[in-house]
Amino acid sequence: MKMRRRKSEISPDLTLDGVGAPHQQIERAIRSKIQTGAWPPGYRIPPEEDLAFTLGVSRAPLNKVLNNLANAKIIVRRRRLGTFVSERTDNHAVIGVIDIRHKIESANKTYSFELLEREVVDAAQAYGWQEAVENERLLRLELVHQANGTNEVFEQRFIRISVIPEVEFETFDEVLPNEWLLARLPCTRLINTIRATNADRRIAKALGLAPNEPLLVSERRTWAHTDALTWVKLSFPGYRNEFIGEFSPLQPLASLG
């Protein structure tokens, strides 16, 4: 008699977060494995049948997610051989990206976010983002990342609509901009600057700080292929945050993002 497999025998730590549509949750679960290095470049992803069984979903949304990730060159689907994490992920997709959701959940806290502002603006409003083309339309977003319901990180972002036109119609009510973008386009270049500054009134109010209280700021610019794609500024309360970097030549780069 054929024995039914248990989820724990396939991939016990691959789970859905319950936020948003099934395909969005599946994308986040798979991307998390790749971004954190748990599934390194070249890793053979479990067959669709096993993934569907593990996650408790039908094959249709799962196949949609895998096709999106393949089109974004995050994974490679090889006929009769299986699906693999792209070798390019090691060098491009995860280096320097601060995964706020992962950091909060790693501290055994519940992650959530709230979208504060969303509007289409002219490039002149992009805070001097040098790669933005004069007079082009950008999507401007502001949101806060939360731990146990408390605002922890303030995010400001601009996205070039000309590079990914469908972004103009995404509400971002249920999916994070960074996760949405990584599911559709590869990150082929990234420049990240970390500096100290003081909180202005708007950021201070959002994070529950006094005006001019110290912040640690990560300012990131990313490209997809040769196109500048997004500018992101993450503001962290200085008194309870620090950035630590470590590199070992014997450790895969994918685990250092």
From TrEMBL:
Keywords: DNA-binding, Transcription, Transcription regulation. InterPro entries: Bact_HTH_transcr_reg (IPR050679), Chorismate_lyase_/UTRA_dom_sf (IPR028978), Tscrpt_reg_HTH_GntR (IPR000524), UTRA (IPR011663), WH-like_DNA-bd_sf (IPR036388), WH_DNA-bd_sf (IPR036390). One of its GO terms (molecular function) is DNA-binding transcription factor activity. Residues 20-88 form the HTH gntR-type domain. This is HTH gntR-type domain-containing protein. The lineage of its organism: Bacteria, Pseudomonadati, Pseudomonadota, Alphaproteobacteria, Hyphomicrobiales.
